[in-house]
Amino acid sequence: MNSRQKLLFGKIKYIIALLLLVLISLVFFVNNANDFDLSRREVLLRRIGHEVLLQSRDSTSRVPPIKKIAENEYQISFEKEFSFVTDSLVNTTQRLLAKDYYVTDYVVNVINCDNSSVAYGYAISKNKKEDILACVGRKQPIACYKINIKFKPSDVVTTNYKYYLVGLAFLLFIGFVFWKLKPKKQLPKIDNKLFTFGSVVFDVQKRQLEINSETIDLTATETRLLLIFASSPNETIERSRLQKEIWEDEGVIVGRSLDMFISKLRKKLELDPNINIVVVRGKGYKLEIRE
Question: How far is it, in rounded angstroms, from Cα 259 to Cα 242?
């Protein structure tokens, strides 16, 4: 595996690790948030049962643990029979469930234990115009009742997901930046910044050629390419080496990028007919310097 492949493989591993970390954190965060919020909701439901009993002048009987009877639906049960006033029950549930930040819409049904009929029911919505209330102000007879409260699905986790998705987007952005930002290829550090071959003077630091008193500017890529040739004049340089050293950290190599830059260098060197970059078939290129 060459250096470019290793670099790409390393980046892929980083992105995969980042996504796995985000996924694990998301599951952990949401589960913990759900557990806490649902436990807090059950405390509020039990408080509703407590206040219903107090309103019926029962301050001694116990409210059993809240039962989850279906997804997003809970049941409040009681030890003893009691009576209740409908508008008092509505006010109590609205006041206490307002403390649950994730509650928007819910339906309340008071079930008669003896025959499982609905003794009283109502629906509360975030949009007050959609509230459904009936028989307000009527006192219900003493009986065994259970209160079922069904909440609108997904009301607990929606806000948590919104906040976490912002964090996920930020982490993905950081991963994208990490993927795109690559260190620039630096020119090799050598003591001699000037190369002379034939009538050509190659100034690496200034990125210039001086040929017969004429100054020619070079691009950064042309400078890096010519430096490889100038360091090994009259020696064949493999095409793969040139591509690796020039474009490895520049992303995907365009098919004929090397050929294009070789052609540009040839034109800039043609003022000296004794200097040329020639093709060595099946191998690469060579900076040919004729005496």
Answer: 11
**pLDDT tens profile 232-274:** 999 999 988 888 887 765 554 555 688 889 999 999 998 888 9
Predicted pLDDT of residue 243: 84
Question: What are the strands, taking DSSP E only, across the chain?
Answer: 67-70, 73-76, 82-85, 106-112, 118-124, 139-143, 145-151, 194-197, 200-203, 208-211, 214-217, 236-238, 275-280, 284-289
Q: How far apart are CA 148 and CA 156, in angstroms?
A: 18
CB-based contact 284:237 (threshold 8 Å): yes
Strand order through the sheet with 284-289: 236-238, 284-289, 275-280
pTM of the predicted structure, to 2 decimals: 0.47
Q: Residue 13 has which token pair?
A: 């591993």
Pair 67, 45: CB distance under 8 Å: no
